[in-house]
Design brief:
The chain is of the alpha/beta class. Helix content is 43%, strand content 11%. It has a 6-stranded parallel sheet with strand order 3-2-1-4-5-6. Helix 6 links the parallel strand 2 and strand 3 (131-134). The longest helix is centred in the middle third of the chain and has 18 residues, at 66-83. The chain is globular.
Length: 219
């Protein structure tokens, strides 16, 4: 029985993964890191600080500090997300399905809180969420299940009774490690990744989510 629904954010509710890659390529190229659209996908689903550490370990730079680079990355992302039309198809429909079923909804994202709030404000869904959970408050980001487990705890629902929506391979691992049901909606660049084989269902977009899908996974 599904008692709550938890959504990832980047690449699922908002078309921010291309924005992340665009901003990351620009920022890391400035630091001498040979990042491009293709290899930027290696860090999909990781926290911003983990993305910075990932590339620093491979192509260390002298200055600025990794902390400063992380803040710069987030500043640029908040600016871009606040200015762009970023909603992915089916967001409002998905929330309507959840509300009609009488279920609480949450976000569990690797993004920091300030970026989450910028995005959900842009989507006008703040009032539709009972819990907003960022992995910035966890010791580890996805694929560690901590952010999902904490979101379920704050919802007051056992993880095994939660349904998670994910678009990234790391996110799918995170949701299943938390013992949740998982619907994967892979972004184009990640389609066919082996991690999505562990999802309970794979959809093409949120537009395909309806009451019958919810009922199927509740059985």
């Amino acid at each position: 029985m599904i008692e709550a629904v938890i959504f990832d954010m980047d690449g699922l509710l908002v078309d921010s993964e291309p924005v992340w890659r665009e901003v990351e390529v620009e920022l890391f190229n400035e630091l001498g890191v040979p990042l491009n659209e293709q290899n930027a996908a290696e860090t999909m689903g990781l926290r911003a600080d983990e993305v910075v550490q990932y590339w620093y370990q491979r192509y260390p730079w002298q200055t600025p500090s990794t902390e400063s680079v992380t803040e710069n990355l987030l500043d640029r992302m908040v600016e871009e997300v606040s200015a762009r039309d970023i909603a992915l198809p089916g967001v409002q429909k998905a929330f309507e399905v959840v509300e009609e079923a009488g279920l609480p909804a949450a976000i569990a994202s690797s993004s920091p809180s300030r970026l989450i709030y910028a995005a959900i404000h842009r989507l006008a869904i703040t009032d539709r969420l009972q819990v907003i959970q960022s992995a910035e408050h966890e010791p580890y980001g996805k694929p560690h299940p901590g952010v999902y487990i904490k979101a379920a705890e704050n919802l007051g629902v056992h993880p095994e009774r939660c349904l998670a929506f994910e678009d990234s391979p790391n996110g799918a691992l995170s949701a299943k490690a938390a013992k949740m049901k998982c619907i994967a909606i892979p972004e184009e660049i990640a389609r066919g990744h082996a991690n999505f084989s562990i999802a309970d269902k794979v959809l093409g977009s949120l537009l395909e989510f309806d009451a019958s899908v919810l009922e199927e996974l509740s059985a």
